[in-house]
Every structure is written in structure tokens, then in C-alpha cells.
């Protein structure tokens, strides 16, 4: 039985992306392919040879990982790392998903039932994590919505919403005084 390892990985247009490869053995030969087309080839004691659309935009690291510089939508797709450690061949498969840059989140607010309710939204293709911080409170809240009793609202307080996906994070801020009825 052959086990095929395939990991879905995410990159962002315009950023640099490195495949998460951890090769423990002394590698003798490496070949990276995209859609079965060779993009990098390296043999011990030689410099890597780059091919195709990644020719001027990629760097092969010593640990076998490949970094693509200035990621483009066209870089999305299946990648395969084949390496030989002088004992046997190894294969790692990845599917690279290239997403648009993370947008700045939008904060909306309304008051009802003696509470101020703040909602944070961002139009993005992937699952986001949300965090709220108030400048007069060190605690953070891990929800998309933040509810504050009206009697606890300080008009000098600012609320900041952080949205995060993978390694990217963006934020927006609103003074609570803008939200009061």
C-alpha cells in the first residue's frame, strides 16, 4: 500500500511563499515539479537549475523547501517534491492555493437591549480568525461580534478588530463614541 501525502497550502498574491518542507536526511538530489513539469533540479555539489515561470522567481533552500517570490495566481496548483537521500526516493505532494491579499476589516456597530454590539467583517475566500481589543482593556475577545453593556462604554475607548488568515493579519479601529445613540 502506497501512502500519498498531499498537503493543501495557502499563499497570498504578491507575497513570498515557502513550501513547509522538513527533510531530515542528507539529501543528494532534489526535483520540484508543478503539474508534472520540472521547476527546479539540484544534484549534490551543483547549483540548482530553475525552469519555466519560476526561473527568476524561486529559491531552493538547503532543507529542500522551495520559496516562490512575488506569488502570482498562475502559481496555484499541484507541486511535487522528489528527493533522494542516497538510500531511497521520497515524494511530497502539495496543492498551492493562491489567495487575494487580506482586506482591511469593516466594523459596524449598533445598540440594542442596553448593549453596544460591534461586528467585524472582511470579504475573504478563506476562514478568518477574529480578535477584538479595547484600548482600555488588556483582554482580547476571539469572536466576530463584541458586545459591551452600555453602562460600561467609555467614550474615549477605541475598539480594534484584527482579522487573521495563516500568517497575515489586518486590523481596523473605531472610537466607541461613534457608535453611541
UniProtKB/TrEMBL annotation:
Keyword terms: Glycoprotein, Membrane, Signal
Q: Where in the cell is it found?
A: Membrane
Q: Which GO terms describe its cellular component?
A: cell surface; membrane
UniProt keyword Ubl conjugation, yes or no? no
Q: Which residues form the signal peptide?
A: none
Q: Any idea which GO molecular function terms this record carries?
A: signaling receptor binding
* UniProt name for this protein: LFA3 protein
This protein's species is Rhipidura dahli
Q: Which gene encodes it?
A: Cd58
